[in-house]
Specification:
about 425 residues, Growth Hormone, Chain: A, two-stranded antiparallel ribbon, 2 domains, mainly alpha
């Protein structure tokens, strides 16, 4: 048993590295869009299209990704995903050598191609880490470790781009080339290492059924269907919670755009802290308990956000960049509502791993197909924030957080009741 675990160390490291690359490339879209917006005069809507392209790619590629995983296995799917990721970043690199009229379109194409890669990588790394951990609490713990590294990259990527481009109004896409070189270099390295590493593929090996039949089989499990909806809701909550806060604080003359960015960065930093905590206790505390507690606390924090006065200011320690470019913590005066929103990052941090772990529990050979369905529903990260933004336009920023309340309430329901596995379902497998 000890030898088997030792032989899995390198595959686990590679999967965790890919978890980080998902965040690195995804979080590269926003600052890249800002650079092109300033350099070529793109609108705010156009600047956000890079993020939208990533989510659209998930909706398009989720189920085909599950099919690919079932047909050719974890390793080959990962290698294809890495190659596509390299291509997507390279296309974005080419946008820096294009004419002003074509640069934005080429960048957007690169973001879309990179989104395909991120979807495929997500399809692989989640079930793979769960499998390598043996499922259950150990599988959840490995997913939390991967999520922690994902958060590290989410925190560092915007800061690294910010250091390279300096003032956004003087940004040039060529300033971001070092980040693109890093991304392409990591993809190339992981591709070569993974090519030489043996990856255990138990579920793929035992399942030779058509993908349609496997997907139909996965959809027979009520706890999986409710879990897939929970993933859709969760990604929307994770993205919308800090996203609308940035717009709100940016429009506040006492706060401004710079501090708004610092506060949002602190939200993502707290997600890192939460995932590290989740990884450390994941083998001792069940996914059900972790999800129940965090969704309940998240609900409380959002209620405090909605019902607290925006006139009450607090000093919030936020992650920021000094004049020399170094990352550090500093104090910022913000409405108390912003503090409650930032603290939600501790709650959302462990939800993905917990929901995934609960939803695929007992699915066995249907896990790969289930993962593909999950990836389609990641598009919730583009849909729910848009709904929240619409509510903000009509009723105000703070009132828009009722959308988050509904989302967290559903996640709490899933943790307490929706994730329960019926004995008759297990027997049919």
């Amino acid at each position: 048993m000890t030898t088997e675990k030792k032989s899995y160390a390198l595959p686990i490291i590679m999967m965790i590295a890919l978890f980080g690359m998902i965040s690195f490339v995804t979080n590269l879209a926003a600052p890249m869009g800002q650079v092109l917006k300033e350099q070529f005069g793109a609108s705010n809507f156009q600047g956000l299209l890079g993020n939208a392209a990533n989510f659209i790619a998930y909706a398009v590629m989720g189920i085909p990704g599950g099919m690919l995983l079932q047909r050719i296995g974890y390793k080959k799917t990962a290698l294809i995903a890495i190659a596509i990721g390299f291509l997507g970043v390279f296309i974005q690199f080419l946008s820096g050598h294009s004419s002003e009229t074509a640069a934005f379109s080429i960048y957007l194409l690169g973001a879309f191609v990179a989104g395909f890669s991120m979807c495929l990588l997500n399809t692989v790394v989640n079930p793979m880490l769960n499998t390598l951990g043996g499922g259950g609490n150990k599988g959840n713990q490995l997913i939390q470790v991967g999520g922690s590294f994902n958060s590290v990259m989410a925190t560092l990527t915007p800061a690294l781009v910010g250091i390279l481009i300096g003032e956004a109004t003087k940004a040039n896409i060529k300033d971001v080339f070092p980040v693109l070189y890093i991304a392409m270099g990591v993809f190339a390295l992981v591709f070569l290492v993974l090519l030489a590493v043996k990856i255990p593929e138990p579920h793929v090996a035992q399942s030779k059924e058509p993908m349609k039949q496997l997907m139909t089989g996965a959809l027979k499990y009520k706890h999986f269907i409710l879990g897939a909806i929970a993933i859709f809701v969760y990604v929307g909550v994770e993205v919308g919670t800090p996203g609308v806060m940035i717009y709100w604080l940016s429009d506040n003359p006492e706060v401004g755009k710079t501090i708004a960015g610092f506060v949002a960065g602190t939200y993502w930093f707290l997600m890192l802290v939460g995932r590290l905590i989740g990884a450390s206790v994941g083998s001792k505390i069940s996914s059900k308990l972790m999800l129940s507690v965090t969704s309940a606390v998240g609900l409380l924090l959002i209620f405090l956000t909605i019902f607290s006065s925006t006139d009450t200011l607090v000093s919030l320690p936020v992650l920021q960049r000094s004049a020399l470019g170094a990352l550090s913590f500093g104090m910022a005066q913000v409405p108390i509502n912003a503090m409650f929103i930032v603290l939600v990052g501790l709650c959302t941090s462990i939800m993905w791993g917990s929901i995934f772990n609960l939803a695929v529990e007992g699915l066995g050979k249907y896990t790969a197909a289930a993962s593909g369905i999950f990836m389609v529903l990641v598009c919730g990260g583009g849909i729910l924030p848009a709904i929240q933004g619409f509510v903000a336009d009509k009723a105000g920023y703070i009132s828009s957080y009722w959308v988050i309340v509904i989302g967290l309430a559903y996640i709490l329901f899933y943790a307490l009741a929706g994730s329960r596995i019926r004995n008759n379902e297990i027997q049919t497998q």
